[in-house]
């Protein structure tokens, strides 16, 4: 499981990564390069990576800030995120997993919320992570290799099995299975 035990601007690299940050509107600079490379390498090793909202933006190819400045991101998802002219997306959501992932098995449902001022531009096709049950026909999030990411913040308290699943997958990975 992607567990980043460092700040993104630190120059060291880590085998186990956990990053619990939110987008703070600060530019991504060359100081982030080692961290971005660590995340890319973790994905290439097949380390399960789960991201919500700002994490989704981080895992894309590029982020464009509100002033139109573009910054290279991790490049693990075929998308560009833009803060330019973005409108608020807000609301509670119910989702169903479209495949087995790090927090839900295929077909399992969960509740969460969506809150963001950004918009995505898909650069290539990528399989969706979830079906949004309260918005028929809407697919949400992405799954590419071991990477799962979505704008939706899942409510782990509503579905405690999600945390157990995440821990089990991380433990199994740590034991080399």
Topology:
Elements: H1 33-44, E1 49-52, H2 54-59, E2 62-64, E3 70-72, E4 79-82, E5 89-97, E6 109-116, E7 119-122, E8 130-132, E9 139-140, E10 142-144, E11 147-150, E12 153-154, H3 161-174
Parallel strand pairs: 1-11, 2-4
Antiparallel strand pairs: 2-3, 4-7, 5-6, 5-8, 6-12, 8-9, 10-11
What does this structure look like?
18% of the residues lie in helices and 28% in strands. The protein is an alpha+beta fold and 177 residues long. The protein has one domain (30-174): 3-Layer(aba) Sandwich (Rossmann fold). The strands form three sheets. A five-stranded antiparallel beta sheet has the order 9-8-5-6-12, with no helix packed on it. Strand 10 and strand 11 form a beta hairpin.
Provide mean pLDDT, rounded.
Answer: 84
Q: What fraction, in percent, of the residue positions are helical?
A: 10-25%
CATH level 4 superfamily: Class I glutamine amidotransferase (GATase) domain
The helix/strand series, from N terminus to C terminus, equals HEHEEEEEEEEEEEH
Could you name the CATH topology? Rossmann fold
In whole angstroms, the N-to-C terminal distance is 13 Å
- Determine Rg (CA atoms, Å): 16 Å
Biggest β-sheet strands, sense, barrel: 5 strands, antiparallel
Structural class: alpha+beta
CATH class value: Alpha Beta
């Amino acid at each position: 499981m992607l567990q980043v035990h460092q700040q993104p601007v630190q120059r060291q690299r880590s085998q186990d990564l956990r990053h619990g940050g939110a987008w703070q509107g600060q530019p991504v600079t060359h100081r982030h390069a080692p961290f971005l490379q660590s995340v890319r390498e973790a994905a290439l090793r097949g380390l399960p990576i789960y991201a919500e909202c700002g994490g989704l933006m981080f895992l894309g190819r590029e982020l464009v800030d509100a002033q139109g400045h573009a910054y290279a991101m991790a490049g693990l998802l075929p998308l560009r995120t833009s803060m330019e002219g973005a409108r608020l997306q807000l609301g509670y959501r119910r989702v169903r997993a479209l495949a087995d992932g790090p927090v839900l098995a295929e077909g399992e449902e969960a509740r969460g919320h969506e809150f963001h001022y950004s918009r995505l531009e898909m650069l290539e096709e990528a399989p969706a992570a979830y079906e949004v049950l309260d918005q028929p026909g809407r697919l949400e999030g992405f799954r590419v290799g071991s990477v799962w990411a979505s704008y939706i913040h899942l409510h782990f308290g509503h579905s405690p099995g999600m945390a157990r699943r995440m821990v089990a997958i991380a433990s199994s990975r740590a034991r080399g299975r």
